[in-house]
Amino acid sequence: MRRIVATADKIYADPSALLKLYLHEPESRPMAAWRGKLKGPLAVTHHGRVELTNGIALAAHRGLIDERAFNTALAAFDDDFEQGRYVQANLLWRAALKRAAELSREHSRTLGTRTLDVLHVASALELETPVFISFDLRQQNLVRAVGLKLLVPAG
After folding, report:
1. SS3 of the chain
2. pTM of the model
């Protein structure tokens, strides 16, 4: 994979990729190393913020993290917003949902993409962020199909 250099304002990070910054997952180390090198805040949509919060809560529900790790992860996530490492993306929902429906009609039958994956790719297109970070293979295929540049942090 070729190296892609982009500034934070040109990148859409799938929330499941960002979740690796708060939970110990196989891709956590390369994701943290990549994020540590990136300057500037990453935009996070409202639904991305919900997905991240819910991902942390689901890890606790599934017994993957204890109560202390749950509270620490949520506090770190909140701190990232407060410290300006994330900014709330200004997304026009009607346009993003319309775009997601179009992407679903055109690609989901052949690629098998899930609704949230399609919604995130549509959001990236609507926000005009040309670089997309994802570890999800089906979502990566959709990212390529719509012409966005795919970035997969590697260790």
Report:
1. CCCCCCCHHHEEECHHHHHHHCCCCCCHHHHHHHHHHCCCCEEECHHHHHHHHHHHHHHHHCCCCCHHHHHHHHHHHHHHHHCCCEEECCCCHHHHHHHHHHHHHHHHHHHCCCHHHHHHHHHHHHHCCCEEECCCHHHHHHHHHCCCEEECCCC
2. 0.90
